[in-house]
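Notebook entry, structure prediction.
Reason for the run: the old model in the group folder had no record of what sequence produced it. Starting over properly, with the input documented here first.
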Amino acid sequence: MSKRKGRKHSSKKTIPKTEVNNTAEDAVSLPNNKGMFDQVISNGWVQNSGIALVLAVIGLGVALYTRQQVNAAIISAAGVGTVFIWIVAIVALRHSTGPPATTRPEVSATADKGERKTVADTAIFMETRLVSLPLTIQPNETAHIVSLNKRRITSKNAVNWGFYDVYNDGITAKQWPDQAVIGKATQAHNPALFAWKAEVSNHGPNTVIDLSIPIKLWFENEKPEVIYNAIVTPLEAGKAFTFYLVNDCKKSVSAVWPDTAKLQVIGESERREVPLRRTFRSPIDQIMMFFASSTRLVGDHPCETE
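New structure, fully documented this time:
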């Protein structure tokens, strides 16, 4: 299995095209006739995470009473509690601001001739979801990985864009990380054996030849945030591109993907900023959280603690 880093890639997955309504009148808005407290507690994510927190606290009480697996119960309760607080905060923020309104196609005028130029329509969507490791890579396919390693991203020779590629050139499906790494992580009770799967899709009529998505990262809540650019090129109309984010070091990470991205369409001379759309399945669907990893999953660059 060969590996390549920091390259741009073409997409292979075909998706159905959908029409995008660009009128501001059709923008989604949240109701404002309910109190903030009622809106937050009625949210499904808050309710589910609240139930998980209650169960974790009950489990902690049982562990303390029986004096068995106390450390694991404490870590579990602390982790669930942290996630619950994050969810409540993000839901409250989303309800106070509401989702961004969609906009009409951008129109510009040339100053010297007074001509009006309509910019090409775009409809770039991004969705994320949590998946467990290892990943399964089919023959002749590639898994595109973003390794969350602050030292790698912010060092003198920083690599803050692109992907770490794992290519399967065999005739059978393979897993990443391999069983040796998974076994080591399991023995160490590593809580970071998961990844966030991100799918970027082009529902517009035009091929995008250059797309940059700046993802904000916070390592152990350190400030300022670190920006990592996911570069997708090209992204043809009706196609999708998938990549994964994994934590590779002993620092917890919080990540947020933005409301906008920069792209260049065929026929245009430079990048421009466009909405990065989503389906609004959840008010916290832009938030990704990663536990500290005690096992090197990628291992292409030393961590800060090494």
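Summary: DSSP finds five helices and 17 strands in the chain.
The old model has been moved to the deprecated folder.
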